């Protein structure tokens, strides 16, 4: 956030249009680059939540799965607040494979 | 790069009207003035304009079409610039060429040009369809030009993705039509915003400059007559950087003086 954005916020004004432009671009480019439409993203989000909720109890309201882009690398970022771990964790679950730079990165943070 | 050391550089943008042809014309002249034997190839067969910006539209006899059909020699089709004999234009052929033109045809033409020129600039058509693919096939390096507008940056991003998959490098960025005042007021994407988003090294920054329109009216690129206008200087600096010289970039924030400019810079400070 720049000083101008901060002043605008204090005065209840809209952010500078360059800030809006940057944010809109980052969002649209993340989708352009991944070739994922919002529908597919939503489907993926549901499936991710389903898998994760087998292991831990997550806050479905607060959960967020989105695409973020930095340095031409698009990452799928999942922020899933965990309420508590479920008592039964199946041991035959596949170990997480080492992710390559070009593949989506996964982050899950605890709320 | 081939053994001869000749370079082929694609000038592209994705979006139309951001300044590809103006950059090709001015960069071509500026490179020629530095002693580089320079060829500019109009690869926009559908809507050719490079001849017009160079003021060579009345001197075209043959085009790339006749060269490909072998009904004339390359040197017969090349239009040499009278004031700047180091520069030659290979005009675009008839729009009907688009029906049969293939990437191999462009490769053949550029290979021919590279035999007798140090640098070949390829003026790419807008879009990412066949015209772009044909032009890109013949290039080893690329300059992507964009303006600080969301649509131009988005289209540039698509083009950069396609250039990357073709193994074209280096890919460098020219940011055109920069308005320092709007940038200072944060009503225009900042230079860093664009370079961060596109993740390309910046080859040049061209300020919005009315003289560009005047020069296109006359068919005399700004770099031809030693103009000191901001855009003319920017194009000359780009040419020097293309040749490997280190020339510092201008800082749009420093273009304007006075208290309001200082305040504008202060307001751009990132606080968190």
pLDDT average of chain B, as an integer?
93
Largest sheet of chain B: 8 strands, mixed
The protein's oligomeric status is heterodimer
Principal-axis shape of chain B: globular
Low-confidence runs of chain B: none
Measured by DSSP, the beta-strand proportion of chain A falls in 15-25%
Radius of gyration of chain B: 19 Å
According to CATH, what is the topology of chain B?
A: Rossmann fold
Strand order of the largest sheet of chain B: 3-4-2-5-1-6-7-8
Structural class of chain B: alpha/beta
Query: Mean pLDDT of chain A, nearest integer?
Result: 75
Distance between the termini of chain B: 44 Å
Overall domain count of chain A = 1
Radius of gyration of chain A: 18 Å
Note the run of SSEs of chain A as H and E.
HHHEEEE
Helix content of chain B: 40-55%
Major sheet of chain A, described briefly?
2 strands, antiparallel
**Total domain modules of chain B:** 1
Topology summary:
The complex is a heterodimer of chains A (111) and B (272).
Chain A: H1 3-10, H2 17-34, H3 38-55, E1 56-58, E2 64-70, E3 73-79, E4 82-85
Antiparallel strand pairs in A: 1-4, 2-3
Chain B: E1 7-12, H1 20-33, E2 38-42, H2 50-53, H3 64-68, H4 74-77, E3 79-80, E4 87-90, H5 103-116, E5 119-123, H6 130-137, E6 141-146, H7 150-165, E7 171-178, H8 180-184, H9 191-198, E8 202-207, H10 211-218, H11 230-242, H12 252-255, H13 258-267
Parallel strand pairs in B: 1-5, 1-6, 2-4, 2-5, 6-7, 7-8
Antiparallel strand pairs in B: 3-4
């Amino acid at each position: 956030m720049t000083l101008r954005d901060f002043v605008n916020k204090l005065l209840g004004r809209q952010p500078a249009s360059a800030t809006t432009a940057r944010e809109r671009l980052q969002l649209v480019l993340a989708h352009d680059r991944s070739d994922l439409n919002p529908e597919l993203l939503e489907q993926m989000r549901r499936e991710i939540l389903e898998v994760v909720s087998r292991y831990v109890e997550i806050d479905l309201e607060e959960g967020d799965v989105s695409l973020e882009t930095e340095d031409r690398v698009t990452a799928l970022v999942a922020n899933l607040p965990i309420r508590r771990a479920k008592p039964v964790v199946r041991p035959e679950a596949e170990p997480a494979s080492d992710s390559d730079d070009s593949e989506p990165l996964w982050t899950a943070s605890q709320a | 790069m081939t053994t001869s050391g000749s370079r082929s550089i694609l000038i592209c943008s994705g979006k139309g009207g951001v300044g590809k042809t103006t950059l090709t014309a001015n960069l071509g002249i500026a490179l020629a003035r530095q002693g580089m034997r320079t060829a500019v190839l109009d690869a926009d067969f559908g809507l050719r304009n490079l001849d017009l910006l160079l003021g060579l539209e009345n001197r075209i006899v043959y085009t790339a079409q006749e060269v490909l059909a072998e009904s004339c020699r390359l040197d017969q089709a090349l239009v040499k610039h009278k004031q700047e004999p180091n520069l030659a234009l290979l005009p675009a052929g008839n729009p009907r060429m688009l029906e049969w033109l293939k990437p191999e045809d462009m490769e053949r033409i550029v290979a021919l040009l590279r035999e007798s020129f140090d640098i070949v600039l390829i003026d790419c058509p807008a879009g990412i369809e066949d015209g772009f693919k044909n032009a890109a096939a013949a290039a080893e390096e690329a300059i992507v030009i964009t303006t600080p507008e969301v649509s131009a940056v988005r289209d540039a991003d698509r083009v950069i993705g396609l250039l990357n998959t073709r193994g074209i490098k280096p890919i460098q960025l020219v940011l055109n039509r920069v308005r320092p005042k709007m940038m200072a007021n944060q009503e225009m994407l900042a230079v860093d915003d664009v370079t961060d988003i596109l993740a390309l090294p910046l080859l040049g920054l061209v300020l919005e400059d009315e003289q560009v329109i005047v020069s296109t009216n006359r068919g005399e690129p700004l770099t031809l007559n030693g103009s000191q206008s901001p855009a003319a200087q920017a194009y000359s600096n780009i040419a020097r950087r293309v040749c490997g010289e280190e020339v510092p970039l201008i800082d749009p924030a420093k273009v304007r003086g006075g208290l309001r400019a200082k305040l504008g810079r202060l307001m751009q400070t990132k606080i968190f």
